[in-house]
Amino acid sequence: MTDGHDLRARVTERSGIPSARRVVVKVGSSSISGDNAGQIEPLVDALAAAHARGTEIILVSSGAIATGMPFLKLDARPNDLATQQAAAAVGQNVLIYRYQNSLRRFGITAGQVLLTAGDLENPTHRSNAQRAMDRLLGLRILPIVNENDTVATHEIRFGDNDRLAALVSQLVEADALVLLSDVDALYTRPPQEPGAVMISEVPIGDDLAGVTFGDIGAAGVGTGGAATKVSAARLAAAAGTAVLVTSTGRVAEALAGADIGTFFAPAP
After folding, report:
1. Residue 40, CA distances (Å) to 45, 92, 143, 220, 251 in order
2. What is the pLDDT of residue 3?
3. Phi, psi (rounded to 5 degrees) for 192
4. How far apart are the first and last CA of the chain?
5. Each residue of 188-212: pLDDT tens digit?
6. Largest CA-CA distance found in the chain, in angstroms, rounded
7. C-alpha dist (Å) from residue 141 to 56, 102, 107, 108, 255
8. Torsion angle of alpha carbons 148, 149, 155, 161, nearest 10°?
9. How far is residue 135 from each of residues 20, 138, 141, 192, 244, measured CA to CA in Å?
10. Sheet with 142-147, side-by-side order of all strands
11. Which of 72, 186, 223, 251 fits a disulfide with 262 by CB distance 3.0 to 4.6 angstroms?
């Protein structure tokens, strides 16, 4: 007997994203925390539109530590692990509440899934996570995944949620992965520098020779940057998942198959 996901629509170009059966969307801390917390509403609008046409959506959302910081009276991201864990514990709760509050407008229920790198390396934990996600999607619940920052240690971290999103894409056999940030695409050098040219397509095996990437997002509250996006995109694409990298403000266009961002072709 085959499950419905065996009949998934393979995505080989941007225009195929709207007909994908299963899509992972990853959003970074700087896009949905602090002054940008208001971006949760339009993000949810876009996710709900895709959900309404039958796409199974998984959201990988950073932002627990950044969201928790104001509640701990912190002006900057804490450096010590215990305070990061405390901020994450408070922030994760608030973050999920904000998402659920917004999703309620569409009658969609969120399910929280917290993972550590160890969970995806341990075969038993991995199969448990896979089974839980499949069940949530079968029930039309929208899983919201984050690293379990409250128990993760420096030694067993994913490093950034772009990598987590790529591993989740493999776990759920997603047809497409949409990596969102505060930049609309990847460029040949940091986009604020003269001579930066947008990269529209990255074929399988393209090593992006001569491309220079900056470090982290403009807001400074996240841990990822263009280099981590490329690394994560390659990981997902090599496993057969198409990847689109664009800005959070363009997520509705991305899920509608618009000709935007940087597209990583999936391996056959």
Report:
1. 9, 14, 15, 19, 11
2. 45
3. -80, -10
4. 24
5. 988 888 999 999 999 998 888 778 8
6. 56
7. 9, 14, 10, 7, 18
8. 80
9. 18, 5, 9, 44, 26
10. 110-115, 142-147, 56-61, 22-27, 176-181, 242-247, 262-264, 201-202
11. 186
Radius of gyration of the CA atoms of the chain, in A = 17
Output the six-digit token pair for 41. 């509403």
- Determine how many CB atoms are found less than 10 A away from the CB of residue 134: 18
Q: To the nearest 10°, the Cα dihedral for 95, 63, 174, 217?
A: 150
* 170 token code pair: 């493999």
- Residue 234 — left, alpha, or beta (φ > 0 → left; ψ -120 to 50 → alpha)? alpha
How crowded is residue 71: how many other Cβ atoms within 10 Å of its Cβ?
13
Among residues 66, 85, 62, 64, the alpha carbon closest in space to that of 74 is found at 66
| pLDDT mean across residues, the chain | 89
Structure tokens at 253: 């266009």
Pairing of strands 142-147, 242-247: unpaired
Contact 214, 190 (CB under 8 A): yes
Q: Distance (Å, rounded) from C-alpha 29 to C-alpha 130?
A: 25
Specify burial of residue 75 (Cβ count, 10 A radius: 0-12, 13-18, 19+): exposed
Rounded to two decimals, the pTM is 0.92
Tell me which H or E stretch contains 254. Answer: helix 251-255
Lowest-confidence pick of 133-137, 225-229, 260-264: 225-229
* Helix, strand, coil percentages in the chain from 3-state DSSP, rounded to 5: 45, 15, 35
